[in-house]
Amino acid sequence: MLKIEGVSKLFNPGTVDEKIALLNANLHMKQGDFVTVIGSNGAGKSTLMNIISGVMKPDAGNIYIEGTEVSQLSEYSRSKWIGRVFQDPMAGTAPRMTIEENLAIAYKRGKPRGFSFGVNSKNRKVFREELSRLGIGLENRMTAKVGLLSGGERQALSLLMATFTRPQILLLDEHTAALDPARAELVTTLTENIVRELNLTTLMVTHNMEQAIRLGNRLIMMDKGKIILQVDEAQKQGLTVERLLGEFERISGKKMADDRVVLG
Amino acid sequence: MLVSLVGAVELGLLYALMALGVYITFRILDFPDLTVDGSFTTGAAIGTVMTIAGSPPWLAVIFAFFGGAVAGTLTGLLHTKGKVNGLLSGIIMMIALYSINLRILGKPNVPLRGEANIFDGASVLTIGLILAVVAKIGLDLFFKTNLGLSLRATGDNSRMIRSFGANTDGTIIMGVALSNALVACSGALIAHSQNAANNSMGIGMIVIGLASVIIGEAIFGAKTIFRATLAVVLGAIIYRVIYALALRVEWLDAQDMKLITAVIIVGALVIPTIRRAIKSKSIAKKRTEEVLSSMGQTSGGGS
Ligand SMILES: Nc1ncnc2c1ncn2[C@@H]1O[C@H](COP(=O)(O)OP(=O)(O)O)[C@@H](O)[C@H]1O
Ligand SMILES: [Mg+2]
């Protein structure tokens, strides 16, 4: 489904500010894999997401989605395969447009956009059904501007918009990190349910160790631009937070440096 | 007095197309496009020269529309593909158009008197009203289509719309083209209404467009697209009425109009801000008193 081979990315190459954001990263995900990604600050987790989605192009290496080499395709042309939810709740929705207009935009993912009305009675019904699955009453506020929603509501809507067209790949970059614990819990539960129901191939960055272990069937750990540990389905069964942190210290020779790390 | 007010409303309706164009770039796309000063004259030049050459006036206006679209497309290309700063892209096109417009016109001032005129068949008021309403409703409908939604989202959150597969370079170019098409159309109509085109008639047009948008929004609000486009059309008319009234003041001249325009814009920008500040201050004062009095009760109960 998704294959990343020898992908590297430098920032400010050849200057004193040179940063190795990704170094020879390899990852192979099968259809339906749900991989959680952990790692210290600046490990390259967001860069990995940006390289897959096409926000940035790799300096070396190849990216295959369903066998197609996509590393030189623009972000917007890759969007037909990839759904994304960002860390910032403001990033995934258009605030001055209504909930149903936002959904209409998401509904057309990867399709040509012409002169037919974005919201019509037929897809409004679909939108209402989808919104009601979130269970937070957004189905009764479909003509409200998204800018009026709370962070948690916007993130739940972003999640729905990213997934309800069943993209081949779902990328989640700390999408609950900016929310208060209760809201984060809600969005996490929604994520779990949606990914399971639609059997989406998912890559999820999180700084919550307990969550990284509990969710998904595989786990990868990153440090200094490298994927330093890959935990497969069988190994992930008996994993604990202590063992995970121990592994990190053993491989990288330091403690997990992320003041936001949540242990469980 | 009444005659000059009717004239002001007529002009306002013709300028409303230009103001709607400015609304598309400044408000929908969030792209400060200064091409307007040039493309307005381009429209006037095309509308005039083609009419003199014998083509029907309505056809000349349609060609003006497309001429403006071409100018806007170039500005959009400069910004998106050439990575030139948005303001600068518009300024570059504006200055380039100045020469191009002179080429189209052949000389700085071209009279249209004695030629066919788009307002021959019906009054300026009728035609102006029809065109302004058609443009307003047309935009309202367009902004509800899938294409229109992606254009609005480009101005609102371009990162988001890219992640759903829209090419934001394309939507920006399209929006700037549509905007300048409307502006040029307005230029052609103004040329016909005043029976002449001249090479400097577009100077300051962007500011007049902005003034119309800001005045309209300040008075009528912009909660929905429907309301906002209505506000822009009415704002364009109100601007012309204020202009006409200001000219009746004894010690003001036509040459003071640019200054008056600046004052109008400052007023329309500052008054809502002051109003908001006063309102939030009074709310804060009220809330503070409430909090204080409730604290007074609890501390009183505790002692
Ligand atoms: N746009 C950028 N310009 C320069 N350096 C960057 C940029 N984005 C990320 N980096 C650097 O690349 C490294 C990886 O960053 P990132 O992928 O955001 O890490 P993470 O998401 O794991 O915290 C960091 O050292 C960061 O400072
Ligand atoms: Mg990050």
Written account of the structure:
The complex is a heterodimer of chains A (264) and B (303). With 264 residues, chain A is of the alpha/beta class. Chain A has helices at residues 45-53, 75-78, 99-107, 121-134, 151-163, 181-198, 209-214, 233-236, 241-252; strands at residues 2-11, 19-29, 34-39, 60-65, 68-69, 82-85, 169-173, 201-205, 218-223, 226-231. Chain A has one domain: Rossmann fold (3-Layer(aba) Sandwich), CATH 3.40.50.300. Chain A has a six-stranded mixed β-sheet, with helices on both faces. A four-stranded antiparallel β-sheet of chain A has the order 2-1-4-5, with helices on one face. In chain A, strand 1 (2-11) and strand 2 form a beta hairpin. The model of chain A has no long low-confidence stretch (mean pLDDT 93). Chain B has two domains: 2-248, ABC transporter involved in vitamin B12 uptake, BtuC (Orthogonal Bundle); 256-303. In chain B, strands 1-2 form a two-stranded antiparallel ribbon. The longest helix of chain B has 46 residues, at 257-302. Chain B is globular and about 85 Å long. Chain A binds chain B through residues 53, 74-77, 79-80, 82-84, 86, 90-97, 101, 104-106, 108-111, 113-119, 161-162, and chain B through 142, 144-150, 152-153, 156-157, 159-168. The complex binds adenosine-5'-diphosphate and magnesium ion. Residues 11-12, 19, 21, 39, 41-47 of chain A line the site of adenosine-5'-diphosphate.
